[in-house]
Amino acid sequence: MPSMIAYLTRVLKTPTIGAFWEELAGQARDENWSHEEYLAALLQRQVADRESKGTVMRIRTAHFPTVKTLEDFNLDHLPSLRRDVLAHLATSTYVAKAENVILLGPPGLGKTHLAIALGVKATQAGHSVLFDTASNWITRLAEAHHAGRLEAELKKIRRYKLIIIDEVGYIPFDQDAANLFFQLIASRYEQGSVMVTSNLPFGRWGETFSDDVVAAAMIDRLVHHAEVLTLTGDSYRTRQRRELLNKDNRTNHN
């Protein structure tokens, strides 16, 4: 019987069942489980294992610069951030509806941390995610454009349920770059989710994209089905510096 089960689990590609059926069978006998309870426990173990491996793979292919979680994020310094909205976004239901998330606010408030953390939540919910900075997205599209395969590249990107574009506004784009960026946003409109972080309010996006008309058309598509979070508060770095100064002052006074 063991060799038969080993063979069958190999054919079915269910290695977890192959590894645990015996141990769980012993537990089932000891605790008088029904056949159905034993079967359910075995299948649950296999599914849990597969899902956790899937999440690990999706996190790897998302290319996050570092893995951050919502649990690690200190919400106390961002009183402006609505907890109910964040809790809703953490469920990742917006991804299934191809809706967008825009995080606006000055540098140092943790926009990138939040974007990565929400991206990780999306991978845990079974969605494919791809993360990069705005300038890297442009480089990728420009290379595809010059090679004559922009359409193919946009199609490839469309396979990802959620793309995260970090740091819009840090580096201004010329007109060609702005047009490429617009095509990226337009290609995902009502097809796939986009998450954007920017240090600039929408009113100043024309400066980044060197064209108010292109910026307005892009914002239009982004916010049509979107949750826009405008963050205000103390920057991490400013706060840390202030805490250090206070600490030094206390030390000097003592």
From TrEMBL:
InterPro entries: AAA+_ATPase, DNAC/IstB-like, IstB, IstB_ATP-bd, P-loop_NTPase. Keywords: ATP-binding, Nucleotide-binding. Pfam families: IstB_IS21 (PF01695). Residues 97-229 form the AAA+ ATPase domain. SMART domains: AAA. It comes from the Bacteria. NCBIfam families: IS21_help_AAA, PRK06526.1. Belongs to the IS21/IS1162 putative ATP-binding protein family. This is IS21-like element helper ATPase IstB. It comes from Dactylosporangium fulvum.
